């Protein structure tokens, strides 16, 4: 059987010789050999080189997508962020700044009967308690101090919403970089509380120096100066050389050399004013395709994989990493479900027990919330879906994070089982 062009064992020289031997006229054979040597052989060599380059790019991109884009979150006191040695960063940079309330700002809000934002705090309690606290719209008594006097005031608590916007921004950056999205395990941002002044005597002075609030039975669980952090830093790096033409001779490849990047980090391009695509790693260099002919200052998100912490009392690191994440798996049997949940690495908190069919329209006992709430519209699913209840047992029933970890598991499952409405419950 004859070899076809571009088969794996194809020999172009042998192919040309075999075809030329079929020509009986010597002059015609010599002329055709000259043409083949000057045209076909260089064309084949060029195509073979391009195919090898393409194969290498596909393999490198595959390896890149399969690892090192895990997002890790936790919470820490402002003064202890240094213990992470520049591997964890505030989700909101403004959290590191001290918030001052000017007296005229407070007075204007009170005159218009509006709430005045004071600061954010961390509620170290089960999310069911937090939900009850927000729904109560309860008022707590406290004091406002200025340089001149002290005044009584009343405060209320609301759920913090500002971190959800950062999650949505990150989701859009993942999509632009062609990296598959995985639900983030973010229990701590869902426990952040905003404190508002709702009533007070009109204070004197220019700036409120301190606020003291009696949170009554919650005073030991509401903590101040706590900031949610994750393993995403920011870098700005200019293209290392003038862009090179792509194969199509229309678009350009911008290169940031490996010497400018951290070897233990992965990178996402976050420019919103430049249209780009096909972000990839080649031999350690970061390559970005776009139409810009001049070098660009690239905004990069630097994802740290080797987290260092020197605080023995640090809060746990919560990761969306998965064991064997390169493997794709359809969940069709109970065994496959158990294996898939095992990939989420939540065995220190929960043990899977069973799955039940429930009426999704009438089910009210779920112990979960959606960790994908900021991007809920991306889960395009039909209404009136059948319900599935995933029942777990807590390893440590006193751990206040159990419900949040369960919410992460159910939110992750919802991406895989969109034809169902997923619920969770702890025995």
Q: How does this model look, in words?
A:
The chain is built from 8 helices and 20 strands. It has 427 residues and is an alpha+beta fold. The longest helix has 27 residues, at 40-66. The model is unreliable at 1-6 (pLDDT under 50).
Distance between the termini: 66 Å
Largest beta-sheet details: 6 strands, antiparallel
Q: What fraction of the residues are assigned to beta strands by DSSP?
A: 25-35%
- Strand arrangement within the widest β-sheet reads 7-4-5-6-3-8
Nearest-integer average pLDDT = 87
Report a brief summary of the structure.
With 427 residues, this protein is an alpha+beta fold. The chain has helices at 12-20, 26-38, 40-66, 103-111, 127-136, 162-176, 334-343, 402-416, and strands at 72-77, 89-90, 116-123, 139-146, 150-159, 192-200, 208-213, 222-223, 226-230, 232-238, 244-245, 252-256, 265-269, 276-282, 285-290, 297-304, 318-319, 350-358, 387-394, 421-426.
Keywords:
427 residues; alpha+beta; six-stranded antiparallel beta sheet; four-stranded antiparallel beta sheet; 8 helices; 20 strands; disordered N terminus
Write the layout of secondary structure elements.
Elements: H1 12-20, H2 26-38, H3 40-66, E1 72-77, E2 89-90, H4 103-111, E3 116-123, H5 127-136, E4 139-146, E5 150-159, H6 162-176, E6 192-200, E7 208-213, E8 222-223, E9 226-230, E10 232-238, E11 244-245, E12 252-256, E13 265-269, E14 276-282, E15 285-290, E16 297-304, E17 318-319, H7 334-343, E18 350-358, E19 387-394, H8 402-416, E20 421-426
Parallel strand pairs: 19-20
Antiparallel strand pairs: 1-9, 1-17, 2-9, 3-6, 3-8, 4-5, 4-7, 5-6, 10-16, 11-12, 12-15, 13-16, 14-15, 18-19
